């Protein structure tokens, strides 16, 4: 069992203050300062203020926020690395009474994804850059850092949950794996409710096994049954629904089914499955492109013919009335990105909707 003191020391090395996950000097400086002013009441000495705030984690909210400002696992349009900074700012602006504890951001070297892809010399070099100690035993890639920190987090604070902000969707691999393993160790049956336009069930993409299009495949072994991965909003796929359900054993509700059958019928099906399979808790992974691109254009892979925010929130509301949401994430919001040509207002619209869904999830986690 990890002691609180040891865990917090690990956090101070592996993480950094909220909003600082993108390694930069001047880019978005004003936005970072606005965030720090809101969180700490000043814009200087932030590293020490953040480190001091960690002592309040044990007594803080059940919902613990973690930013992972990495889009190295993406593969179409980049820019989701700015998600943690912008989503936090929008939450503070639009949902000022929201209760949660902000653990900070993972320290991200933007060229790295997972330590297993690195040779020993690269790891030593990166440890020297991140920790000023090339002999350190700490991870250096964002997915590995996230997974390592959260294994210790759940061992130290078993009654708390993490709300992760990305970043590209590969990050959900590192968020859900320790969550699922912790729940199994506690004897609890957890299901992943996955909102997305894409299945993310590739075995690998261009030779890389962990990325935004494959993360789901590599957490199936940590579920009590593959069907405990329930995907909602799928519509962009080179293969039919029967292929994914038949090959991997997952359960899918495609976007056209939500439209054709109605959201209430989909909710009834999901609730029936969760009760039948005796699920205890839910983790919600929300890729913003699950929504129609008229609502979510500021993302790497916007897709038409998706759900409305109202439909997504209704599903979440009805599920939360019968099952506790104990972990969640918001992924793939890329504030500077818009491939649809819908104009500058698309970023604010995407952020507003993403923050509304995030606020709902955080509120449920606080319960």
TrEMBL record:
Keywords assigned: Hydrolase, Metal-binding
SUPFAM superfamilies: Arginase/deacetylase (SSF52768)
Keyword Nucleotide-binding: no
InterPro entries the record matches: Ureohydrolase, Ureohydrolase_dom_sf
Gene Ontology molecular function: any one: metal ion binding
Gene Ontology biological-process entries: putrescine biosynthetic process from arginine, via agmatine
Family in the record: Belongs to the arginase family.
PANTHER family per the UniProt record, alphabetical: ARGINASE/AGMATINASE, GUANIDINO ACID HYDROLASE, MITOCHONDRIAL
Protein name: Arginase family protein
Species the sequence originates in: Thalassotalea marina
